[in-house]
Task: structure prediction
Amino acid sequence: MLSVETLPAGTLIPHYDRSALRTRIVHIGFGAFHRAHQAVCADILAAEHNSDWGYCECGITLNNNGELFNALRQQDLLYSVTEKADDGLHTRVVGVVTQALYRNCDGIEKIISAMCQPDVAIVSMTVTEKGYCYQPATGQLNLDHPAIVHDLAHPEDPQSLPGIILAAIKRRRDASLPPFSVMSCDNMPENGHVTRNVVVQLAEQQDRQLADYIRQNITFPSTMVDRIVPAMTAEAFQSLSHKLGCADPVGVECEPFFQWVIEDKFVSGRPAWEKAGAELVADVLPYEEMKLRMLNGSHSLLAYTGYLAGYETISECMDDDDYQLAARKLMLDEQAPTLRTTGVDLVAYADSLIARYKNRAIKHRTYQIATDGTQKLPQRWLDSIRWHLRNGSRFELLALCVASWMRFVKGVDEQGKAFVINDPLRSELARLTQSSAEGEPRVTALLSLKEVFGEDLPDNSLFRDRVTHYYQLLLLSGAKAAVRQAIRAG
Result:
């Protein structure tokens, strides 16, 4: 377990008075990204600016037995974050966690009660796109989602993220406690609007007066977050233990780059995040679109075509000149024209992303990035494709992106090796791929996913033609050849 006494010289450890921290933020989703991003920002504020904003960390998923939270408690709520670059590393121990609650161990009631502590001013979350129980094509609440169906029948024992937030809002209102702000830190365009939609729409189904209260009293600031934080593997933990001189099962590794853009709209106060490098703005959407389309969009291109071709990590993809050129062309030729961002040097931004992708010290696996594709396609690729269709411009690399995802969800790579598809629509994807013949029928079958492609794209002949072309090319010649052709065609 982590021991600050044995850490290497130069490690930043909490010298501030941790007992002076107040639980003022409840965060849902104690994943690697949050540990290396928002929590680090809070730790910098505590260490350098005497901030008393502490975090209650909550886990609400049912897919593990809470080892992470048990380890965190055993380590006095401390964990390490190591920034890795080709020229070295830098480690800090984060000390701003004041409470840790896990649904399987502590129960959902304790989590809701934690959100109702008087000092709590913000509830934030990093639960990935699928955690919002929404339809990616529309941004609206999915009333057929099993967790939402449960919450409509059992509002006092919620399972979903919207249901849990709604239960806490209701309890605070009934107790005459001040409202909190609800802040999404997930990769969705206008993530604050999506969060507001699902919470208000669920409230409309349960209690219209509560829905009106939320509209009048609760704010849902949007954010844009950026930092590459690979999932920790057994190999990564072993390497980290060697560097630290002790094991840290809660530790994470990340790149040095950090960006956080926040819509400054909070009803009960906020930390001085700007003192720790965050940007507080009136409108986050241009930054969100830039990051989602240029960074996340190119990341997903590399993930699907790279994994199919046998590249395990993004840095390996960057060793292939064609893949590097494809990523940059996608950013500048097909994504940048669709953006509303102003005053940003997009060429410099693209070059900085390529430099980050080349960081060999960060093992960002293509398979990890390729998960949950049905939740990611609309904001990373499909909105841009709609822009090109309206404007009559070419979108060859974007068409390849969609085709490579379709090839990926078959669950077999180009070497004939089967792999597991991790996606909330996994069963539907399996049904569609198993019931359709290869080639154009497979493309048609997957385009029938209205919750992903909407009503318009499946009916667009140009879109269908370009996706089918690249799907056939992936089958006949493989991902590397398809990438080369898309570069030339674009």
Residues 4-281 form a domain with the Rossmann fold fold (CATH 3.40.50.720). The chain has two domains: 4-281, 285-489. The chain has 22 helices and 13 strands.
